[in-house]
Amino acid sequence: MRRVYLDHSATTPVDPRVVEAMLPYLTGKFGNASSVHLFGQEARAAADGARRQVAALIGARANEIIFTSGGTEANNLAIRGVCELAEPRHIITSSIEHPSVRGTLESLEKRGWVVTRLPVYDDGIIRLEDVRSALRSDTVLISVMMANNEIGTIQPIKEIGALVKEERQRGRRHLWFHTDAVQAAGRIAIEVEHLGCDLLTLSAHKIYAPKGSGALFLRRGVRLTPQQVGGHQERERRAGTESIANIVAFGTAAELAQREMPARNEHTRRLRDRFENAVKASIDDLAFNGDHKRRLPHLSNISFRFIEGEGLLIHLDMQGVAVSTGSACSSGTLEPSPVIRALGRDEELARGAIRFSFGKDNTDEDIDYVLEVLPRAVESLRALSPLSRQTIAAS
Amino acid sequence: MSYSEAFKDHIANPRNAGELVNANAVAEQTNPVCGDRVRLSLRIRDGRIEAARFLAYGCPPTLACGSALAEMLEGMTIADALKLERKEIVTAVGGLPSRKQHAAALAIETLRAAIQNSVN
Fold it and tell me: Is domain A16-257 in CATH 2.30.42.10, yes or no?
């Protein structure tokens, strides 16, 4: 059976060039970067090189990069780290953040923080005016993702950065701006100076490096409370022996992503657009979720009416095609994707949403195969659905 | 969650899917919490289920349980059908985690409603 992976927003395969770069640090060059001897120095030099590579991907300075175990840890470190310097005050965020941001903010709410969650409207994008009017005199943090993980919509980060700068020029001193760029990095050109953000989250495994590595950009001069203590690593901001092989892999992947971004984007956009046009022509009763233009080039989120996403996911999986759905049903309680619901979609469309995310190694033959199995899978589920008019009559 | 082979087979090849045009016992039940739906149409003659068809909307366990139920009902007496319990449906689909058991409960509920709605 052919296998087609269309879930690159969940994770990506590790690029063989990345594997090659990291392998020596699992074997001969295994030193602890804190050690003084040659083994340690080798590890330290490798981490420094990777730090420069990751910094270059976002236009930062190397000493503004804190390596973490991944995006979730970086989001926790950013939000808790900044907020724990102050008494509970006010935070602004969007209603479609990744669970790692959502969950961190919920835990702060339990400790007295007030969180304003901005709506995204039917295009899946927040409005700058809403950010401006949500600002309070005690707002300490704005945390808005750069691009959404389910629908790929790109948020007005540069505009928020300019607003924060404006506020500072007016004399406001304690307002920080964080953006989770886990989905955006390697797919949108990022220049932290240009964006005006103070903190920015990255993850390695979304850009063809292994899981277990991420980073937080922390603008020079911005203070934060470390969340892991008991070691001098990462300039006292993240204790724990560095995973050098993973860090080297992240650095190599970042450099490749930067260099190959235009070609990768052109390739995935072409496959995605071809896929969407063919789906539109062959399947009725669809809704494309999120703004058509202001979205990541590799992602397509489609709601199929009359059917439920997980059923379609299993059908496709049984035919070798891997996709994902944001809805979950457990203990008889339905949790339709909060992101799709935030677009104003009804519950049925929210339940029928599927994310197809394309990668640099997908081929036209992959798309041909998916276009062959997808309409059949949709049709067979609709034939079963009491909500559909296409049900089978039997005598 | 990972599903059993029996489960996947019900999803890939649903048994007795559709709607009987000459049914004399029909019910459609909805789980008010999650919105999952099962529709069952039966043709009953002389106290026995001659034919059974199902339709389902919702999470995969709901589809699989509808299929398993419709398959086991054909040829069954009404008395035996009324004795069917949730666990028999769960067994027929190769087991379900506890948080998905409600799918089998919905199937049984729909069966009982259909029998109650039957016209002689």
Answer: no
Q: Which of B10, B57, B101, B102 to mutate to test the interface with A (most CBs of A within 10 A)?
A: B57
Does the domain made of B5-116 have the CATH classification 3.90.1010.10?
yes
Here the ipTM equals 0.92
- Closest Cα partner for B41 from B78, B16, B6, B77? B16
pTM: 0.94
Select from A203, A230, A229 the least CA-distant residue to A216: A203
What are the tens digits of pLDDT across the range A42-63?
Answer: 999 999 999 999 999 999 999 9
Residues A320, A336 contacting (CB under 8 angstroms): no
How far is residue B20 CA from its own chain's centroid?
Answer: 14
Q: How far is B59 from chain A (nearest CA, A)?
A: 6
Instruction: State whether A394 and B21 contact (CB < 8 Å).
Output: yes
- Buried/exposed code over A183-210 (b: 16+ C-beta within 10 A; e: otherwise): bbbbbbebebeebbbbbbbbbbbbbbbb
Please write the tens of the pLDDT for every residue from A292-324. Answer: 999 999 999 999 999 999 999 999 999 999 999
Interface of B with A (CB under 8 A): 3, 8, 11-12, 14, 17-22, 28, 31, 33-39, 51, 53-60, 63, 66, 98-100, 102
For domain A4-10+261-384, give the CATH superfamily: Aspartate Aminotransferase, domain 1 (3.90.1150.10)
Give residue limits of the domains in chain B: 5-116
